[in-house]
Amino acid sequence: MPQAVAGPEIERLIQLLGRMPGLGPRSARRAALQLIKKREALLAPLADAMRVAAERIVVCRSCGNVDTSDPCTICRDETRDPTTLVVV
Questions:
Q1: 72: how many CB neighbours lie within 10 A of its CB?
Q2: pLDDT in tens, 29-53
Q3: Which among 63, 43, 66 has a CA at the least distance from the CA of 54?
Q4: Mean pLDDT of 80-86
Q5: What CA–CA distances, in Å, run from 5 to 39, 84, 86?
Q6: What is the reported pTM?
């Protein structure tokens, strides 16, 4: 593992981004540094969107879909046939 060369706040951001699927340590470091460089355009809006998502998004108890309501929009749709399952 690379030696920490930034402050603990930046290293924590890199570590958390590195937990995302498809982001290794180098990609996470590049993403974190880009977010910091473009703080107003990227970091602040992303942090706000993540806060809102954490507060409002839930998992539907019926189907496991993610939505802002439970049951989700799909399960509440009265035009859908709940007895039909489509396998793709």
A1: 19
A2: 999 999 999 999 999 999 999 999 9
A3: 66
A4: 87
A5: 20, 55, 51
A6: 0.70
Residue with tokens 């108890």: 61
Contact 65, 77 (CB under 8 A): no
Identify each DSSP E strand in 6-72 by its residue range: 58-59, 66-67
Query: What pairs with residue 66 in β-bridges?
Result: 59
| Rounded-to-integer distance, Cα 68 and Cα 14, Å | 28
- Looking at the structure, give the CATH architecture of the domain made up of residues 1-53: Orthogonal Bundle (1.10)
Other beta carbons within 10 Å of 9: 9
What band does 2 get if pLDDT is binned at 50, 70 and 90? low
Place of tokens 């879909």: 65
> Domain residues of the chain, as ranges?
1-53, 57-88
